[in-house]
Amino acid sequence: GQQLNQSPQSMFIQEGEDVSMNCTSSSIFNTWLWYKQDPGEGPVLLIALYKAGELTSNGRLTAQFGITRKDSFLNISASIPSDVGIYFCAGSYPDTGANSKLTFGKGITLSVRP
Amino acid sequence: KAGVTQTPRYLIKTRGQQVTLSCSPISGHRSVSWYQQTPGQGLQFLFEYFSETQRNKGNFPGRFSGRQFSNSRSEMNVSTLELGDSALYLCASSNQGDTEAFFGQGTRLTVV
Fold it and tell me: Any bridge partners for residue B13, and if so which?
């Protein structure tokens, strides 16, 4: 089945630093989504991307839909302590209807040192 | 607009029992998906309902089932609970199922 690869599993950065996370797949997707999950809570949608090459920002977050449609990255600039959490990428298949569903990466746990 | 609501938030059950979890999607959303989240396996897709019909199913045993009502509210049921069913169960709603999905806070199920 479809798989999304996120690595490394954990990242440790200093407050104020920028951080970039990648998500890759062996198959193409037509939608890429980035989520953040705090402990004990459900994932919260950060950014949605719908077109190859698309670059979208949401405050200090910027995400891009790779031109090959097989990858996406999320960049967080000037990190702050509340950026701590698990970041998931998700993608959906080109087919719609019966085959439409999201596939999630395993997530990257981000720690921010004050 | 109210978000996705899952009830209950926490649940403790004994092995062999059954459990029903509830999810109320965002108003107007017709697709409800369920996921199981555990530390070792991450987010695993259980099933998706769209307009009261199961449209997609993940790779879980038949003990896991669900349904969707005409108002788009959904329930999932797990019968004959096993210790390994302990997890955070998340529900997500969206317009079509393959676009922006919004999650509830989840139900933390502990099987003892």
Answer: B111
**A101 reaches B (C-beta below 8 A):** yes
Query: Which of A44, A101, A106 lies closest to B42 in CB terms?
Result: A106
CA B22 – CA A7 distance, rounded (Å):
33
Length of chain B: 112
CB A74 within 8 A of CB A46: yes
Separation CA A30–CA A62 (nearest Å)? 18
Chain-centroid distance of CA A16 in Å reads 20
- Residues of chain B with Cβ-Cβ distance to A93 below 8 Å are 98
What does each C-alpha distance from B76 to A2, A13, A20, B24, B110 come to in angstroms?
A: 24, 39, 36, 12, 16
The answer to whether the CB atoms of B33 and A102 lie below 8 A apart is yes
CA-based nearest residue to B111, from B87, B88, B83, B89: B83
Q: In what order do the strands lie in the sheet with A19-25?
A: A4-5, A19-25, A71-76, A61-65, A55-58
pLDDT tens over chain B, length 112 residues? 679 999 999 999 999 999 999 999 999 999 999 999 998 788 899 999 999 999 889 999 999 999 999 999 999 999 999 999 999 999 999 886 557 889 999 999 999 9
**Burial of A40 from C-beta contacts in 10 A (0-12 / 13-18 / 19+):** exposed
Contacts of B100 in chain A (CB under 8 A): 33, 45, 48
d(CA A70, CA A62): 18
